[in-house]
Amino acid sequence: MEALHVKKQPVPATLYLVDGAVDAGTIFLAQQSVHRSGAETIGELLTDDHEPMLPFRIRGERFQLIGKAGIAAIRAVSGAEPIGFYGKAHAVIELVGGHRFDGQLLFEEGHGKRISDALKEPWVRLETHAGLVWANRPHILRIETR
After folding, report:
1. Looking at the chain, which residues constitute the CATH 2.30.30.100 domain(s)?
2. According to the CATH classification, is domain 8-76 in 1.10.287?
3. How far apart (Å, rounded) are the C-alpha atoms in residues 52 and 1?
4. Where are the alpha helices (DSSP H) in the chain?
5. Tens digits of per-residue pLDDT, 91-103?
6. Residues 64-113: tens digit of each pLDDT
7. What is the largest CA-CA distance in the chain?
8. Where are the extended beta strands (E) located within the chain?
9. Residues 11-57: pLDDT tens digits?
10. Among 50, 64, 92, 144, which lies 20 to 30 A Cα-Cα from 123?
11. What kind of fold does domain 86-145 have according to CATH?
């Protein structure tokens, strides 16, 4: 019997794990979102409760499945959600594992502009000079605003 193969779009990304490890490699997004028309976004991949593992290939190594619960943050420069629909506020986010990101905290339109409003989602989005970061809310130690 032939295995079902779903074509995925490779997206360069960096994973920041709760143990402090940082792994550069590739994540894989579906070419069609199950929630709307268009390709799957990183946000959709991360919030898919039916799949606790993230498909990831570390550069030069084999394919792996990484437990989402062990990911403090993920950064990507492509495959990002459109940012034109968000309000922004400068913030520094510190995470378990010693990870720190400085950038613009993104708020969904109509969801307020307070830091607590951004923390209603399981993955907090931060636009940095190096790309869009999704921080895993349970692993955030501190958010500093300016």
Report:
1. 86-145
2. no
3. 26
4. 42-47, 115-118
5. 999 999 999 999 9
6. 999 999 999 999 976 556 555 577 889 999 999 999 999 998 887 666 66
7. 58
8. 8-17, 22-30, 53-58, 63-67, 71-76, 86-95, 100-108, 123-128, 131-136, 140-145
9. 999 999 999 999 999 998 888 777 777 778 888 889 888 889 999 99
10. 64
11. SH3 type barrels. (2.30.30)
